[in-house]
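Researcher: Go.
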Amino acid sequence: MPRIRMTDWPPYSRNDLARREGTIAVARLMANAAQTSPKAGGIDQIECELVYGEDEQEEIAREIEKLSRKNPKNKMWYNLFRTEAVMAREADCILFIGNYRAGDSPLDLNCGYCGGRELCGYVYNRRACKYGQIDLIEENEKAEDRLIDGPLCSFFVGDLGYAVGSATYMASKMMVDCRPLMAPSMAAGRLGICPNSSMVVALPMASLAKNPFVDVCPDYHYLHRDKLIKQARKNYVVTRQVHWYDYRGWYPKAADDTEQEG
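Model: Structure:
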């Protein structure tokens, strides 16, 4: 009978990958919950993308670190993004949930939530629009420096919140740690994750003894687990070389042994 052993150390070992499979299975259920969440008019609008693997998560983390330098005068911005880059690496997987109608297909209720007096015209008048249809590709050059390509239909942005809430509720029921994070959400658009969506929310997930997304110390990008282990490995090798005895005669004789020989 096959046996599956699951531990969380060392990372990406066979036993750890077996453990991560459970988190990935829950992520698929969370995507289902997002798809069936309440939506304005019952209109389809949610897309999900699941990313996992050491190289794939490293790519996301490095993109977050690039974005941390986008606002160099804002120290809070820098620290937030650097911290969440570490969390992207430490997660078992990351589920991305996006809304593919918020940017180019408003609900057309003329509610004014998106901007006020112009009603839905607030979105249409600020996009490349013809025949009542919005073309996001034609406007793409203007949007290159925006982390979120607005304006967006507020109704559909709210529906994205329902989708994220349904997904996190599923995570809590399945006893998997999960937390929506801003920095991976911003990186998603730069990496083509949920490519049809103008707004994406990232949900890093983990099934570890300690939730890696809370209770982090200040300057976490200096003091996270991998940094400290890297330092400990160096110190271990260096301190082994500081000695004055051959290992074969390293241990001095006990006092009782000396007296017996005398």
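Model: Residues 14-216 form a domain with the NADH Oxidase fold (CATH 3.40.109.10).
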